[in-house]
Amino acid sequence: MEDMLDLISGLPFEILRRILSLLPLEEAVRTSTLSTVWKKVWAPFQVDMDFDTNPITNHEDCKRVIQVIGTILRSYYDCPEVWKLCLNFPESKKDLIVLATKGAENEVHFEFSKREKISGKFKLKLEQTCQGFSNNPTMKASFSVLKTLHLRSVSHLAQDLVSALFSNCQLLESLKIEKCVGLESLDIEAGNSLQNLAVLDCPDIVDLTISAPILKSFSYQGVLPQIHLVNTLNLVNVVLNLKDGLGNNEFDCEEILLLLASLKEVEILTISGWLLEWLCSAGVIFRCLRFQFNKLKELRWIDSLINRAKRDSLACFLNIAPILERLFIKIERTNSSVPCPYFHQYWHEPHLWMDFATIESNTSQLDHLKVVTFLGFSIKEDQLLLMELLLKKASMLNSMSVILPTNRIWRVVKVSLHDQQKQASSNHQNQIAVLSPTKDFFFGFTEEIYSGHCSTNA
Fold it and tell me: What does the alpha-carbon distance between residue 78 and residue 53 come to, in Å, rounded to a whole number?
């Protein structure tokens, strides 16, 4: 392997760049860590610019930087390249560095860094409906090729620059914003091109407003802010991975229900289990709501553990997903637990106080459910009771499987007490029988002999 790497590293830079052009940009960037040679391939082109004001708020200053970015977009390299923009503010002794990585497939990643360590709080408004500097034909042509934009570590020093950048991306299809410390409010007003949006790991965010008429995919990860979806009727796939809990924000039951109501037309939904638990603990009974997820075909439930409250709140949520076909239950033990508070006031009598038999009787039949997968499974009572519930309610179930933390895959079937006595005598090595918590039957676990992997991305 080392000889092979040496042979590849010894190729001319032109061939190495050609190799990079065949890779997705995120994967191509990782090659910079392979060797000194690969690091040199990624050596950035540096541009130094001086400004009188800090941060960049002057229209002409923003225009200067946007023109440089336009030049980068017009470059004729058919392989990834890196540009380092050093924006200097001599009077305040502050610098803003913008690392722009341009991919071969109309994609650009911008990473912002600054000399000062203190991050000011700021609001970011991105409007694609503005014309930006598009009255300049050359500038317009430069930005018309940009389809994917990735913004990382945006700070208060760059907020006006980023707004100006976005306003020029009239044909942008995908936008990712991540790790923006100090960002408290994000307001995105997109035109008729943005289809994919991801907002990830912005720890200070309090409010997120999105207007995007043809948006199909929205992915959010981090703390729970107030999320307002306006004019997003074409959403198909939504991820709400609230792994960091509330942060410094407040839990507003009505706001959460309004958010869920705005997602009622989606077909694929990923949601944190603690959010459903908190809603149910506050007295919300999903089957009593005025909306259902009538188009939801795939549900991905994620949390750090399964306990009684999380199990029963998921069972309650399934009542408003009448055509659900695929259910993935992912246990991320590396995530921190989000403990549920005691709610002093309830909308209804909390059903989480009911016994499991009552929960089971109140759960609707899952007539369309065909596939159930447990990821990060362990043999514990609450998980087994949930499996029992799904086996009873899903009359058309084709496959139930569990993936252990060791990535071993086991198929699960329901085995009667009588049949289990027959199978026990055969003593198959790759089969395990576990008595159900109600002691009515056995769970039959059979290890898959193939090495296929189920998609586990949340």
Answer: 36
